[in-house]
């Protein structure tokens, strides 16, 4: 019989700007007590975490788990399982599935699927189109994470390119509106130029020239201008250029910001120099750009112009990625390696453990007003992760958990290893082994 309580002893708890060695008691779904020298009773599993870090689970505010409609690439079950192995305990999934999540019915269908198959806590973005404002206005803000608009680069009819419609959506909802910003006209013009020169087999090194700094800046600056005009609550996804970072503010606390920004692991890790060796495996939209852009993204993350680190996890099969440039899809799998990737940057001296936790755990909770998650606090859900900071390991085919079976980090050695992941107080993952019971719950919002 499983025990109802878990006592984690002697961990270095990283939370709210401090790292303190202490004990943490879990009872049921929640963190019951945080104190020095908690004494266990007989109904208690005891884990000695000496030498380990205890972090809140990461809340990933942007993933594509491919269900429904694209399940040959990934499913909510397969990708949430990889996520908890990587220490991500909650995710917000995007609406560009098939069918798209642009009606209340499809949103409810996704919730029902996740309730039956998700290892991690879950919620979903509701998608905007040029003609679904009536559906948007029906949304219960306590039930949905937010609204997602593709202002560039999308599938189906999810490209929202009518400025009057964008203004109307911005003016009509109090929901947080997350946007993908790339100017489609600029990209089409650039693509046409290079197709004329190379045909379909354009060198991958030209990806950040086609999906250029100008395309990103034009779109994001216009979205921010509209948000200021309408008073909309705007969150700009996956910044990829240094130029865009100047559009964001660090003079007020996150809880008071109306305009916020996210950066993804791949834009903090790779640069255009990596296309030579990684090819289409690092083809993302927006594109990975220069080392200087990467440095400026780090600078903005550290000085709080950028608020959140996410993954934009978007798996494709190896066969799909092997196509010529114009046919190879953009996106890559990242949830299993996001936390260890950022902790590698801690080991390199780029940021502190405390700052990493702020950007991956606390800030998504603040930004989306998620109830009782993102912190190690008494009374909060026990979504927590133990990390060994001295257990070196290398990403190889046989330890990759994504359904697509590959990672852009293959061959990379990390100095930190996720050893235990708790979801709602249950030990869901331990040293490569999973509890096959599903412990994920629907995220709720304090709005």
Q: Kindly state the mean pLDDT as a whole number?
A: 97
Task: State the CATH class of the largest domain.
Answer: Alpha Beta
Structural class: alpha/beta
Low-confidence stretches: none
Summarize the amount of helix as a percent range: 25-40%
How many E-type strands?
19
Domain unit count: 2
Q: Report the span from N to C terminus.
A: 38 Å
> What coarse outline follows from CA principal-axis ratios?
globular
Largest sheet: 9 strands, mixed
- Rg from alpha-carbon coordinates: 21 Å
- Classify the beta-strand content into a percent band: 15-25%
Produce the secondary structure layout:
Layout: E1 5-15, E2 18-27, E3 30-35, E4 44-48, E5 53-56, E6 58-63, H1 76-85, E7 88-93, H2 104-117, E8 121-127, H3 133-137, E9 146-150, H4 163-172, E10 177-180, H5 184-198, H6 207-210, H7 213-230, E11 234-236, H8 242-245, E12 259-264, H9 265-269, H10 275-278, H11 291-302, E13 308-310, H12 318-321, H13 338-347, H14 353-368, E14 384-388, E15 393-394, E16 413-414, E17 417-423, E18 426-430, E19 433-434
Parallel strand pairs: 1-4, 1-5, 6-7, 7-8, 8-9, 9-10, 10-11, 11-12, 12-13
Antiparallel strand pairs: 1-2, 2-3, 5-14, 14-17, 15-16, 17-18, 18-19
